[in-house]
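Private note to self, pasted from the team thread so I don't lose it. Backbone tokens:
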């Protein structure tokens, strides 16, 4: 639908050596954008991902290590990239525990990585977008930005927070050719979700398929996972001219979860 219309633009996707971030990076590269991949590791595999993506889509792809739990590294990522037309704030972690048992260091890490990192990268990227005269900020939130579940206090707080940040960013850039929106996925079968399956199997004494159907997809009326390609294409749409007046809001890709 949007063949190569992002040629000449640079997209930075935080937390993109896996899962949704990697899927979004692929779709932006397919639409012609040069890509900066990121995570907190610096392995041969990370750099190989960048080489493979460049070869597949015929664009420039760099991998830049930066730990999104640290504000100065978030800002340094944008500075090192040297250009930022499209910023996708995607890095995220999860921890599940009741509030009295929730470790403080997990709370701090989730708020830092899932919420504060987007403040720091956006602060560093907006001046570059203003200079270039165009920009897109896309925050990967969650259905948990709009609804809550027990035992996910930090995650739900961070995701509600990032919807607020998306609104403020949209308002502060409303008179410019820059937009900011959040995408709210329901469940997507990525390593983050895979890692929750073994404990849930034990907790409910269920097999894998039963956990997926009865626990994970319980609130997703479509009874299907959203895919990383669908989220990537939603990000590509938000970069298009068709989305130029969509700002300060969120798009749910959740199989009907938040309609319940
Ligand atoms: P994932 O675990 O596959 O990917 C998370 C990414 O974040 C990885 O690339 C990881 O390396 C990176 N990351 C983690 N800590 C980091 C740090 N300190 N610095 C830099 N990078 C870091 O998970 P995912 O499911 O692809 O999640 C991506 C985003 O989508 C998260 O924000 C998550 O909350 C959100 N999300 C996921 C789902 C789902 O069902 N998978 C649903 C809604 C929202």
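Design output:
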């Amino acid at each position: 639908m949007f063949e190569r219309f992002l040629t000449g633009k640079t997209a930075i996707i935080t937390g993109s050596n896996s899962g949704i971030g990697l899927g979004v990076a692929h779709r932006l590269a397919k639409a012609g954008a040069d890509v900066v991949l990121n995570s907190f590791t610096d392995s041969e595999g990370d750099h190989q991902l960048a080489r493979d993506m460049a070869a597949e889509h015929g664009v420039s792809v760099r991998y830049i290590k930066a730990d999104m739990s640290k504000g100065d590294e978030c800002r340094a990522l944008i500075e090192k990239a040297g250009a930022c037309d499209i910023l996708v704030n995607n890095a995220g972690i999860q921890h599940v525990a009741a509030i009295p048992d929730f470790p403080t260091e997990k709370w701090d890490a989730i708020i830092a990585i899932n919420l504060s990192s987007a403040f720091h990268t956006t602060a560093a990227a907006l001046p570059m977008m203003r200079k270039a005269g165009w920009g897109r900020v896309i925050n990967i939130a969650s259905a948990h930005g709009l609804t809550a579940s027990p035992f996910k206090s930090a995650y739900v707080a961070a995701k509600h927070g990032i919807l607020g940040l998306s609104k403020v960013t949209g308002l502060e850039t409303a008179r410019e050719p820059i937009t900011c929106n959040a995408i709210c996925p329901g469940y997507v079968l990525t390593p983050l979700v895979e890692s929750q399956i073994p404990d849930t199997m034990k907790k409910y004494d269920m097999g894998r398929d039963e956990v997926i159907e009865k626990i994970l997809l319980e609130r997703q009326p479509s009874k299907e996972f959203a895919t990383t390609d669908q989220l990537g294409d939603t990000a590509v749409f938000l970069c298009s001219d068709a989305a130029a007046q969509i700002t300060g809001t969120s798009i749910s890709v959740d199989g009907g979860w938040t309609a319940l």
